[in-house]
Amino acid sequence: MSKILKKLSVMMLCITMIVISVIGCGSNAGSTESEVKANEGTNSGNDGADTQEGAGDTEKIDVKDMVTLNFTLFSIYDFSDAAAVQEKLNEILAEKYQIQVKLTFINSGSWTQQTNLMLTSDEVDVLTLFKTPLSTYVSNGQLLPLDDYYENASDAFKSVWSEDEINGTRVNGSLYSITNLRNFANTYDVMMSKEIAEEMKIDPAGINSLEALDELLYKVKEAYPDLYAMVPQTGAKMSGGWTWDGLGDQSYIGVLADCGQTDKVENLLATDDFKDYCAYTHKWYQDGLIMADALSNTETGYQLVKNGKAFCYLSNNSNVVPAGITMANVIPAWTESNSYASISYGINAATKHPDESWKLMEAIYTDAEVATLLIDGIEGIHYVLNEDGTISYPEGYDVSTIPYGGADQYWSFPNAALSLPLQANGADFFEELTAFNQNSSISIASGFSFDSTSVTDEYSACINVMDKYYNALMCGTIDPETSIPMAINELEDAGISKIIEAKQEQLNAFLAGK
Amino acid sequence: MAKNKSLEAGKTKKKNKSLNKCTFALYTMMIPGVLYLLINNYIPMAGLLIAFKKFDYSLGFFKSGWVGLKNFQYLFQTKDAMIITRNTLLYNGTFILLGTLLAVTVAIMLNELRSMKAKKIFQTFILVPYLISMVVVSYIVYAFLSQDNGFINNTILSGLGIRINWYIEPKYWPFILTIVYLWKTFGYNSIIYFATVIGIDTTLYEAAVVDGANKWKQIWHVTLPGLKSTIITMVLLGVGRIFYSDFGLFYQVPMNSGPLSNATSTIDTYVYKGLTILNDVGRASAAGFYQSLVGFALVLTANMIVRKIDNENALF
Which chain A residues contact residue B73 at CB under 8 A? Predict the structure, then answer.
């Protein structure tokens, strides 16, 4: 009896094994990939290979026959309700534009890896271009050129951006993406704890230079010996830039000093701007005013100030002042040359539906209904409309718990001006933002993009050297007198002069052609 | 006589037949495993070609252009290249040497324990560091070495009146990283040696005692020779990976602090830092190819040397 039972159970196991493996093999290759991606903590709605063929685009076509585009956006928070918003969005898109979308939000942490994977096939059609420099996307052949589409675009679309703003995302003369609405300019300020600033009666207008800050920090250290007088803006980064224009390069290899008001490309470490900055921070570090473990820091300056551990930090800002902070402006608003290209929206070169993808681009930049839905979510569920035209989160929710709410990170969406501002930012927020951008001083290299293909080896070598010295010098942890000459030597060995020459040549050609 | 022979022949034929049936079943069972190895390990080797191409995402893998050896240049061009190669080799050489020494010592000590319970407890405890993720380890090290709040600065050294800024001085880091590595891996490696030690024939020990050997002599003449082949295998495997470094150890533990670069950067961290923004698949693959090529050459050489010295212990 038991022998038969044994034989039977063995047979059942074999059959089960075979059936399961056949099922696994037989289903869509895309769905196993998407399972892996879902496990990696991204939005649950991504299904990869789910596109359908579309018919013509002028006649009314059935929803089932419409093209479904994969639209991937960057997000800081998890938007668990994206599916609901997607449904509503598709209703509008079906009626007005005869397309459908599949919304995917990818978190900051896995952004670069996920998007790189998606761009290797046709898994994404329209996406945010962020973190990787635009010129890199282009040299890797990942983006579709948009010149023809833009030429034939509607007037409504062309009126969204000025000539300069469109040229900001051209690489080697061709248009590869469209910039998005955010603060193109940055002010550089001292962000002080409001409490302490009020107690010590500090006048922000008086802190308008590193010298003035110098005096202030010593006073604060005396009054509050247990606090860090100054901490980095985030992690080991003392401040997100200062007065040097990296010409599209966040490693600052070959820069324009003086907020981009000069046309001479220099080695950042040789500029006076940099040397002055580091002289101050080194002085402060030696006297114990800057947190000693700055290079191993993993927190943001804002957190440290909010938690009462630090007095101030330097930061780049737009026109928004974070809560609990008194801001003192040191460097007035200026726009870096690659500012327009740092976040933009583009179309995957491998897309199977370029025409429909462009239609989606037009929709997200010109259609207020689409934009509001995309950015703010569904009225009543994700936000509450206030009388003055602003929105607030519903009772009991805040920015990190709301299941869908992009208003707080409006700067990552295509055209936030068409959506509704948060109450905290005020009803005129987007007008103020545009004014802020227009009133800033703009680098003369605005719109310039550097083609680094001729110096790629020197580039990686220089990045490694900058890695060694940049943060350490900015945080004041090493002595600039001895380290800067050393660093300059190493950069020379790595071939920085070749890079600077190439940059200067390309810049001169660009300025001549302007 | 002849009848016997034919009987024998008949028996062997029968044996051959049943043997064939047996082996057929065995070979069939091997198929899933071999298939997996083929698909997962051998077919992707074709990807090595990326190291010689300029990868263009719009053209894909097969149509992207060839650039010959250009992708390898950045690894040798700069002064940094000397430093990273030196670091990788020296660290790995030290790790293999000291790691083996420590693991063998611990394994022999474990063997000398009398109580079974003590053996089990120790085995479990020494294995724990291996299971801790490198990121957690980097924070443990930070708790020791942090300038403001670190254990070492605040207790041990404050007594002596000195304060060292650990994350800025590169000269301490070869020692720090070696200690962290040994702490993490000695337990795991010692288990492997321990498994061999307990397999050594106890009669050999008895014979040694009869010959008048004390504990040290026993270890030297019985235990170590018994461990010889395991040590050789493990060292050969280590030598094969001598150009690879534990990325977590060299990137996370120094907390990516710039000034420490000269003492802590290896080929892996150099490639990661230099190419992570540029997203250059070709050059990253070139680095990996270079590492595996050198490792392969070293394994062959080391194996050849071992074969000359002691034929049975060579891997192949």
Answer: 457
